Amino acid sequence: MSFRTAFFAATTPLFIAIPSLAADSGNIASAQTETKSGTDAPIFTVNDNKLTFAYIFSGTDPGTFSVKQGGGYNGKTTKQTYQFSHFDGWKYGTNSLLISMYKSSHNDPASPCTQPGQLINGAKADCAGSTQIYGLWRSTFGLNEITGTRTFAIGPLRNLSLEIGGDASTQNTYFATDKRVFVGGLQFAFDLPYRGFFNVAPLYYKENNHKAFAQCGLFGPGNPGVSCLSDGNVRYHGTWAIETNYSMELDFLPDSMRFFSISGRAAWYGPKGDQNAPLPTRGVGPNSTATKTEFSSEPIRLTFDASKAFWGRDRSHFVDMWVAYRYWQNKFGLDHNASPGTCIVAGVNTKSCTESSLFSGVTVKF
Q: How many domains does the chain have?
């Protein structure tokens, strides 16, 4: 397979989370439990800021892989994570902000390497691991608070809110990612036992990005709008999304063990056109470049409230130690069973379009 075929379909490595959520929703979960306030609450009921250091043991970036001895591909990379999170609850809703930096290993190299140890012309090079900056923002406006009633509190449903937000990401790989996302829709907020919550948000999702391998001129002049993009900017179709997250203190444990909580998230993002949109989809089956429904999740995070355990209840969640499991299929919308040159190369799966990893870290509130 030529470099043109192998790399033209390669995706732009993002991260999300969020989405996805690439966002570390567990960092704001403990603060969110405090926002169950009535309409007479002061303007800001919560103002919560945290710093996190974490480690992703088996991360992936689609289209980034090395060839293993004996055949097959290694699509895994470790990632160090440095993160600032902010959450506030005010008179009419909530605001969440997440700013993260991810430092990959050499198996996810920075530019000018296109693959570990290799430049685009095939020459050998020892490039450092890439660095990604990712930001996520979500704001809600509660209909109970706006109307000054409890109309939208029915049974376990605590509130119905309008939600807007956005994502942005850039990474110093050869792909030259430049992600911009807008979301808007509703959020249904439910109560769980032990000061817990469960949120479900059906949303409209619109993403634009940049992909160096789709840019005209890299592999010859090309045909703009047919075989390449004149500026390399990918403009996906708008699609649907569902984002969920939950948190609950484990206060059913004996009092001497009430230092633990669980939280998690899951998000689905619908197909958004070709992976090189607005170019038309090419191929069928394992040669297809169509995007698929993306599933990003951290189904469970177990948190140990170290500050409460060692310094008392009034220092709860000032220092948290946690471990989680992450699962991300069709990462960034790429079909993990197709997407030639990215998820599938020479009929073999690169294992770079699905992420299954432990995720562990320490979070400090300030």
A: 1
